[in-house]
Target: L-ornithine N(alpha)-acyltransferase
Amino acid sequence: MFAKLNQYRQTLNNFPLPKPKKNQSQNQYKFEWAEDLKQIQEVQKFRAEQFSKQFGIHFANGLDQDVYDFGCEHAVLRDRLTNEIVAYTRLKRFQGFELAKSYSAQEFKIVPELSDLSNVVEIGRTCVHPRYRNGRALSILWMNLVPKVLWEMRAKYLIGCVSIRLDGNEARAYYTHKKLQNLSLAQKINIPSQMKFEPKHPNYSFAQDEKIPKLFQVYLDMQAKLSPEAFYDEEFNCLDYFVYLEVNNIAKNFVLNKMAHR
Model:
């Protein structure tokens, strides 16, 4: 198994980025881990900006801060030309008996269902700048997480939450919820919500409302399981769904294949 993982790591190191468009450098993005307070405050500002636009909420001091930031690994993807942050997520490893302290446990009843697991990595607060939401930036961000998740954290399971806003987006939230209800047994995990919520049928909708959001599809393509039950996040006025991935079942070439066919 480790021979295959090392071979995959070498593939990642040698993977050439596509040729840039005009006025772009050869490598459009650069990846880094935020390691000091200044960098963490920068990502907190980025998160606040993205979540404010997406969910219409206000953050004190213009920073999205919570207690879960402490002890997390903060992953940052930047535009190499402008140095601005374009995508972000954070990681934290738990053992099963520690999962009650996770963000996911505040929204879903993962204890005691997952308490026997070991090396569980929670991924959260994922966000992408609107100009970079074609999927490429997110794929590159994920690609750069692989070495830490597989070899340093030795993750066996990945968990987290994926969200869809309600305000002005009721139709898409409704159809996304219905699609999650109809996932195959291999694509869903029956983890109950701490506050179960059923979106109402919209008065009207458009064809694009029936498309599942990009991040939801990314998780499904990675062989993740999603909860059919939604948690209503009152602060963000959105619906959250639990995400569960068994690392051994993740298609290792997912990111490379997605990028190669763009």
The beta strands are 29-34, 73-79, 85-94, 120-128, 157-165, 196-197, 225-226, 230-233, 238-246. Confidence is low (pLDDT under 50) at residues 11-26. The chain is about 30% helix and 20% strand. Residues 236 and 255 are 29 Å apart (CA to CA).
